[in-house]
Amino acid sequence: MQYTFLLYSNPADFADMGPEDWAKSKAAYQAYIAALQEAGVFVATDWLQPAYTATTISLKDGEARVHDGPFADTKETLGGSFTVEVPDLDTAMDWARKCPAAQTGKVEIRASAMNG
Q: What sequence ranges are listed for the domain YCII-related (predicted)?
């Protein structure tokens, strides 16, 4: 079964990070990716540009409406994702707990509707 971990954080929490802090964060994610790969459960990952760079499109009465910015204005934003292939939700939760994003934000776990 494939599960996607949606990584949410508050960008304000990273505003004061210096180069050393960013290097530590990058190393933590690299170690996490290596552990997922070593366990044979890694499928994909992606990091997203900041939410303020988003463009949102909606259709109302057949007319496209384009908005700068994210769909919802919230403190926590979606910053990236991991997709893993594991036998069950309990195993997915074990891996989500190990994700560096769980230390500073939230990790939402969603099962794939395509692989079930």
A: 1-110
